[in-house]
Automatic annotation (TrEMBL):
SUPFAM superfamilies assigned to the protein according to its UniProt record, in alphabetical order: NAD(P)-linked oxidoreductase (SSF51430)
Enzyme Commission numbers on file: 1.-.-.-
Record-given protein name: Putative oxidoreductase
Domain (NADP-dependent oxidoreductase): residue spans on this chain: 16-317
Lineage: Bacteria, Bacillati, Actinomycetota, Actinomycetes, Mycobacteriales
Keywords (A to Z) from UniProt: Oxidoreductase
Gene3D superfamilies the record matches: NADP-dependent oxidoreductase domain
Organism for this UniProt entry: Nocardia macrotermitis
GO molecular function: oxidoreductase activity
Amino acid sequence: MITMRRLGSTDLEITPIGLGCMQFAGQGIVTQFYRPLDQDTIGSIVRAAHQGGVNWFDTAEMYGRGHSERALTSALTSIGVTPGQVRVSTKWAPLGRTAANIGRTIDARLTALQGFPIDLYQIHEPHGSLSSITRQVRAMAELRTAGKIAAVGVSNFSARQMELADEILRAHGLRLASNQVQISLLHRAIEHNGVLETARRLGVTLIAFSPLRSGLLTGKFHATPELMRTVRPIRRTLGGFSARTLTRTAPLIDELRAIADAYGAVPAQVALAWLLTHYSETVVAIPGASSPTQATASSEAMNLHLTDAELDRLDTLSAAQH
């Protein structure tokens, strides 16, 4: 049975793993990271995640200028899921915009979501807006007060910026629900930059994006290095795909594979199980999926429980990467 987690200090309960929907963008800059998926494939992915127990989906305006939002909700509708049966989070794109744009574009976001409410609305980046973070968060608070959204979150915010956002929201009788940041066995910056400590102190949920480090933690590139040539250039660069990286991370991947074999699982599931356990209730994860098989595997990781010895071995090998 899947144990639900509370989103920040809200009343919203979510599964430890959600589905990241960046791959559903279909157009724009995201296609430099992932190949476009047709709607039938997207529908199969969403169905697999939902059948696996996943109850929330994370998308963004920036993912194809609303294409991901529409593709997600079309897929949910096609499998008989109605508004309110699952949780949907999306994000406002701040680049080149003022805080006033948050209120002006909220109806466009709701239209793209085709009747599904915004359970969590996030500021996608702390940089790039023509307005201060203070003004942006105030605009988000106004949406929450007006009942347009259920909770306010941020993405890629530093510890100091989280503190500021929560302070502003408290002045409106609200609290910061979440901060979406990169976290994985190969990316543990939250432990050293104050984000994890601040999140725990404020009661903020950290949403881990790229929890499999763009696929490196699946082990498939270690098993078949030539697959790296199939990864799109920007993703390959940001993910650190190289022969040197494969050599350096091999001991960690070998351990993931050994543990997975003992459970009849795959390395990606072990990596996700470690993430959810190591950081306890504070961290949830949103692995993406380009196929139903990947979505099913991610959802099944919620039922994989590692021993203390296994967790410690992975912790040690992971720490050696940093």
